[in-house]
Amino acid sequence: MRSKGVAFLIAVLAISAAGTALAEPGAVMRLPTLDATTLDGRRVRSADLSSRPTLVSFFFATCVPCIREAPILTAFAARHPEFSVLAITPDPPDVARDYVARRRFSWPVVADARAFIAATGVRGYPTWLLVAKDGRILARDTGLDEAAMQEPAIGLAELERWVADRTK
């Protein structure tokens, strides 16, 4: 914007409390159509996720925060059968299989999912999406803070609180 030969720059800054995330402008509000094969050869489709809310975790194998939060996600999946948990990675299947075996994931993982990741608007890792049974994205976040990842019990409590606050 210019006024009398002076240039003005307008910037917008969004601030959120630790552990919360603001929706990005133009953020995807519904989970894009999913039709993929998991690492164990099962087909997973959007309709398969409609029986209960789903926590979708986006990771890649060399992402340090992704590695640190893996035991917390494992604990959440074991403790909350009322939720589906799904992991999505851009990694090729062989890399993802090794990661999943080392981290002892017990939920479906879709590898080589760059197109789906792009369709969701995920731009950083880790990222979580909390998805309602009807496919609406209830929340998105960039994972746990450093302190929560240091102690799995604290991280699990933080994740459970995050989910509970968004599914009320």
Short overview:
This protein has helices spanning 64-79, 93-103, 114-120, 146-150, 152-166, and strands at 2-3, 6-7, 35-37, 43-45, 54-58, 84-88, 109-110, 127-131, 137-141.
Key traits:
globular; 9 strands; two-stranded antiparallel ribbon; five-stranded mixed beta sheet; 168 residues; alpha/beta
Explain this structure.
The chain contains five helices and nine strands, in the order E-E-E-E-E-H-E-H-E-H-E-E-H-H. It has 168 residues and is α/β, with parallel strands linked by helices. It has a single domain (30-166), classed as Glutaredoxin, CATH 3.40.30.10. A five-stranded mixed sheet has the order 7-6-5-8-9. The chain has a two-stranded antiparallel sheet with strand order 1-2. The model is unreliable at 6-26 (pLDDT under 50).
Layout: helices, strands, pairs:
Layout: E1 2-3, E2 6-7, E3 35-37, E4 43-45, E5 54-58, H1 64-79, E6 84-88, H2 93-103, E7 109-110, H3 114-120, E8 127-131, E9 137-141, H4 146-150, H5 152-166
Parallel strand pairs: 5-6, 6-7
Antiparallel strand pairs: 1-2, 3-4, 5-8, 8-9
Helix pairs in contact: 1-5
- Name the helicity range: 25-40%
> Please, how many domains?
1
Name of the CATH first level: Alpha Beta
Low-confidence stretches: 6-26
Question: Largest sheet, if any?
Answer: 5 strands, mixed
Give the CA-CA distance, first to last residue. Answer: 43 Å
The CATH architecture is 3-Layer(aba) Sandwich
| Coarse structural class | alpha/beta
Strand order of the largest sheet: 7-6-5-8-9
Separate helix tally: 5
Q: Could you please say which CATH topology applies here?
A: Glutaredoxin
What is the string of helix and strand elements?
A: EEEEEHEHEHEEHH
- The whole-number mean of residue pLDDT values reads 85
Described by the principal axes of the CA atoms, the overall outline is globular
Q: What is the CATH superfamily?
A: Glutaredoxin
Report the β-strand fraction as a percent range: 15-25%
According to DSSP, the number of beta strands is 9
Radius of gyration: 18 Å
